[in-house]
Amino acid sequence: MGREHLLEKQKSGFLSRQEQGVIMLKQSVQLAFMTCVLAILCYTNTALGHGRVSLEEDTCVRQIGENMVHLNTYQPQFDQGGHYCTEIPMAGDTYLVVDLIDLGLRDMPVGMKVFRGEEKEGDMIIQVNAAHHPDGVINGIGRLDKGLYSVIVTAEGVPPLNYYYQLRVEMVDYGKLARTWAGPAIALLFLSWLLYKLIQSGRLKSWFKSEDD
């Protein structure tokens, strides 16, 4: 029995139990498939970067009181248009750009230091001496090998303001990866379970047989 014939009978209100079961079966599979697709799309949107979110939700923003700074990192030698925050995909020369979001920070000397490893425990890789930045932008560049790095942006106010970032270069954050993939994994498990139940019940075979009639 063809799909068009089933749809016509559904509109007219005359369906046998078997025909109703076929339609419900198809709708269940379609729903499971769409759930899986939506979960994967949500993962993709998350993985592309911090994107268009408010400053309060942006993971690249650090705030002390009313004063906020924003960090972007770039590796144009690998990806001309790519920009990152604290998860840097490749080791190599890395540009760090700090935006002084609040105007008050532009009226005081601000500097930046990048250390290998935890805060101030490793070698200093990049140093930008404290100075006024009327354009609100601090730039630094240095070679970052694989590993952890600490970024400290210091505004020399009273008291001084210290903004802290931890960079991960060419490393996999397994905890974040697990959280990100939780939704798609659940959707795939549900779809697999549903298909298994359909195969066990023999309904899947009946469905394909109905498509051929």
TrEMBL record:
Membrane spanning residue stretches: 181-199
Swiss-Prot/TrEMBL keywords: Membrane, Transmembrane, Transmembrane helix
Superkingdom of source: Bacteria
This protein's name: Uncharacterized protein
UniProt source species: Nitrosomonas eutropha
